[in-house]
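TASK: fixed-backbone design
INPUT:
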């Protein structure tokens, strides 16, 4: 999948997890945190590509991408259970550094990040290439499995751009509309 598709899938999944799990009360910092980490988490597995959407969004990101490129091959560590565990643990430790007075619901933010990161790996399993879930074992896993792998999606081709991307955007809008009362209470005092 392309970065834009991953981004919308991850933000939809992260936001939905927060809105489903939270009790409606004033917590704008948690909502903002969920949106930020969902965006980052959805793009982070592609940090192993110098031209990824995340590197392009950062100032001087192209330099960082080129520095990381010799050490990480695309769709290896960052697209595996091992990479998922390492990155989620790192995010957990990072969130512990956030001061309590920020009013950040750390558990909501962490769960949104983990779901957004996982959504990236799951979405890439739907592509022709698949992902090496058991890295360092290089076997690529995909959905649907063999012998139906011919039904998988080609990254960046018409099916993703004309069907999946618009449907995921529609899903994001549905989540916002459906949970608007929770969002309103989260952002503004009742």
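OUTPUT:
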């Amino acid at each position: 999948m392309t970065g834009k598709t991953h981004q919308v899938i991850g933000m939809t999944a992260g936001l939905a997890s927060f809105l489903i799990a939270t009790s409606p009360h004033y917590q704008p910092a948690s909502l903002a945190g969920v949106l930020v980490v969902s965006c980052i988490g959805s793009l982070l597995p592609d940090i192993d590509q110098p031209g990824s959407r995340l590197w392009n969004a950062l100032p001087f990101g192209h330099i960082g991408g080129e520095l990381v490129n010799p050490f990480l091959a695309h769709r290896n560590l960052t697209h595996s259970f091992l990479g998922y565990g390492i990155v989620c643990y790192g995010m957990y430790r990072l969130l512990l550094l956030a001061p309590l007075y920020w009013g950040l619901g750390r558990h909501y933010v962490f769960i949104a990040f983990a779901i957004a990161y996982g959504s990236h790996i799951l979405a890439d399993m739907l592509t022709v290439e698949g992902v090496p879930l058991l890295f360092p074992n290089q076997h690529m896993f995909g959905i649907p499995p063999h012998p139906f792998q011919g039904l998988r999606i080609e990254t960046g081709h018409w099916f993703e751009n004309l069907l999946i991307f618009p449907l995921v955007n529609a899903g994001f809008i549905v989540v916002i509309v459906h949970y608007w009362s929770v969002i309103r209470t989260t952002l503004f005092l009742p």
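COMMENT: The helical segments are 3-21, 28-43, 53-57, 61-68, 81-96, 106-125, 158-178, 180-187.
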